[in-house]
Write a sequence for this structure.
């Protein structure tokens, strides 16, 4: 029999038992749906990491009073203790920069600059950051136009600034901001550079920023005291030399800071060394949990679905014993019968797979809509994988019933009532 | 009848000297645990091309077993079965399937049509397994249904057909691949007398056209149609 007539035969037979076929395929549907949904979400998460976390500059060590905690629950901090920790200083940064493993170390401090406006254009929540000429490297910035702030700016507390791409676009539009001035909290700054965009991250944008020399910043802004200093105090951004392992650099930084902060050997660190590696590690953990969940659910439901298919095919073989006998009597070979029943199992599994793929993509899209930072995508290979899995399950669990059907004795089969 | 030698296959070459069926010392033993039943004992039989044979005997005489072996639905325990000169008693299941498909057409008492297929699709079935092209299949289906007088009923399913019509479809199906012999196992067992006559007239006509016809029956009125009667009793020809 030709492939097409066998396919047609399978479809006709399965349509004859619509609800039975659907219920049988349910296991496959759930299994494939899980695979597609989770793979799509993982793909989305990977893209998020690629697009949005790249700007973190995975090698920069952020020295702060506080140690960042990444957890799905509420982090536990002792703010009483944190508030008492000693402030970092510009000199700390200079000392760290002397370390042989360190490329650049800069002091950094920032605050919300409030509303900025120019000729009717308005932006909100712009970050005003003070740093030194090394901030370009430490912050992983790339200059698009003009220049970054330099040593002279710092030494002379010049009223100059470098603006992020968001600020440039939304305040200046098509105009070139270089050489223009802008007012921030009653001070007028000359724009000397525009930064290349880093892209949005989880709703906030790192490009909504104005960077000024730290000396200028400190001239017009009080250092935060007490609890406010925990998050908003002066911090140190440290970039290890090319080729130096992050761990080695962190050890050097830790050692030097302990000495400078007068910690005894039995005292704990009163500062945190934070890297964006921690974000990535946490995401890695979430990703691997999702993988485990997917593999678990998919394995179980495909197994259950496969057994369901085997069961229903055995029932089908028994019900159609007479049909098998008749087919053999008119000349069907064992393998003709085998292929007929195998085809039926595979078509059943593939139909389940198709529904699973559609529902899975639907769920992934729904999650994309509901979760802002996750842009789920179902690449073509997940669809191939879905169909591949279903076909494999159909073949694997369809072989035994099909074999059983093909080995029936024609006389016994034809007499079967 | 004018179209007496319509059959194309096997007419010229074998001539009437070589029997189309030759059984030599053929026995069949059913080995059912402690007791084994000898259903057929040393059967010797020759049937020539164009023959019309009735196999008769009471139930348990072995006539159905003989029919199944002739139709390659079953294999003998010992002895030889030559079909068109080929010894086929030791054929494997694929070879037997091929013989069932091409060389013998089987008609059953229960019709044994596939209920979900139309009459035309039932007739088409043996040709599908023979790998006949779609065009050729349609052509033959039409011809066969016309031959059995059901040209207009091809699209009906078996449950829409009467017993006699079903048996006609079964005969059309049996002849679709133009087999050397037509085997009919109690073909009129489920039919009334009038329909029985119609079916037997159809078999007579097929025989007149040159087809070898073998009918298993316990009914004398059916056996009277045949040119030769073989009586079986306790697995032996008497």
């Amino acid at each position: 029999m030709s492939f097409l007539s066998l396919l047609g035969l399978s479809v006709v037979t399965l349509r004859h038992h619509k609800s039975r076929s659907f219920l049988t395929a349910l296991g496959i549907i759930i299994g494939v749906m899980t695979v597609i949904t989770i793979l799509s979400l993982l793909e989305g998460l990977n893209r998020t990491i690629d697009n949005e976390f790249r700007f973190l500059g995975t090698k920069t060590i952020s020295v702060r009073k506080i140690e960042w905690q990444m957890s799905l629950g509420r982090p536990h901090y002792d703010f009483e203790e944190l508030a008492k920790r000693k402030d970092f200083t510009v000199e700390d940064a200079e000392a760290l920069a002397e370390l042989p493993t360190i490329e650049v170390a800069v002091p950094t401090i920032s605050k919300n600059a409030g509303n900025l406006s120019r000729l009717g254009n308005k932006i909100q929540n712009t970050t005003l950051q003070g740093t030194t000429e090394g901030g370009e490297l430490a912050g992983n910035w790339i200059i698009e136009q003009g220049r970054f702030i330099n040593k002279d700016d710092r030494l002379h507390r010049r009223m100059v600034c470098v603006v992020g791409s968001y600020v440039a676009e939304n305040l200046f539009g098509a105009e070139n901001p270089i050489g223009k001035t802008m007012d921030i909290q009653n001070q007028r700054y000359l724009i000397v550079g525009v930064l290349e965009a880093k892209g949005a991250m989880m709703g906030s944008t790192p490009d909504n920023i104005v960077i000024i020399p730290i000396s200028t910043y400190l001239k017009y802004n009080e250092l935060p005291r007490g609890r406010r200093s925990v998050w908003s105090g002066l911090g140190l951004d440290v970039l290890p030399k090319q080729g130096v392992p992050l761990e080695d650099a962190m050890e050097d930084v830790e050692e030097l800071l302990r000495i400078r902060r007068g910690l005894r050997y039995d005292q704990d660190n009163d500062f945190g060394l934070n890297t964006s590696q921690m974000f990535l590690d946490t995401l890695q953990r979430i990703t691997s949990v999702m993988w485990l969940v997917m593999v678990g659910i998919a394995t179980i439901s495909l197994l259950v679905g496969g057994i369901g298919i085997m069961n229903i095919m055995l029932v089908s073989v028994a019900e159609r014993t007479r049909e098998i006998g008749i087919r053999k009597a008119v000349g069907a070979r064992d393998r003709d019968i085998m292929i007929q029943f195998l085809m039926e199992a595979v078509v059943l599994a593939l139909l389940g797979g198709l529904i699973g793929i559609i529902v899975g993509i639907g769920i992934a899209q729904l999650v994309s809509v509901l979760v802002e930072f996750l842009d789920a995508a179902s690449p073509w290979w997940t669809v191939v994988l879905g169909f591949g899995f279903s076909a494999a399950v159909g073949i694997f669990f369809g072989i035994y019933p099909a074999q059983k059907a093909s080995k029936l004795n024609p006389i016994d089969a034809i007499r079967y009532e | 009848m004018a179209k007496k030698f319509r059959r194309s296959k096997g007419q010229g070459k074998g001539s009437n000297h070589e029997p189309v069926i030759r059984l030599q010392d053929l026995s069949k033993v059913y080995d059912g645990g402690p007791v084994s039943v000898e259903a057929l004992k040393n059967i010797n039989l020759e049937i020539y091309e164009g023959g019309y044979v009735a196999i008769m005997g009471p139930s348990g005489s072995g006539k159905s077993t003989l029919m199944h072996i002739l139709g390659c639905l079953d294999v003998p325990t010992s002895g030889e079965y030559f079909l068109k000169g080929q010894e086929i008693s030791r054929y494997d299941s694929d070879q037997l399937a091929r013989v069932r498909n091409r060389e013998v057409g089987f008609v059953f008492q229960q019709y044994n049509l596939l209920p979900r297929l139309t009459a035309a699709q039932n007739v088409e079935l043996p040709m599908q397994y023979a790998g006949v092209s779609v065009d050729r299949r349609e052509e033959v289906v039409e011809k066969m249904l016309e031959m059995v007088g059901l040209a207009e009923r091809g699209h009906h399913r078996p449950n829409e057909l009467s017993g006699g019509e079903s048996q006609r479809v079964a005969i059309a199906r049996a002849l679709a691949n133009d087999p050397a012999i037509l085997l009919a196992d109690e073909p009129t067992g489920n039919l009334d007398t009038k329909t029985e006559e119609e079916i037997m007239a159809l078999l007579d006509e097929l025989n007149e056209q040159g087809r070898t016809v073998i009918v298993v029956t316990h009914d004398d009125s059916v056996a009277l149609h045949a040119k030769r009667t073989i009586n079986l009793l306790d697995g032996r020809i008497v």
Q: What stands out?
A: Chain A has two domains: 3-52+282-415, 58-275.
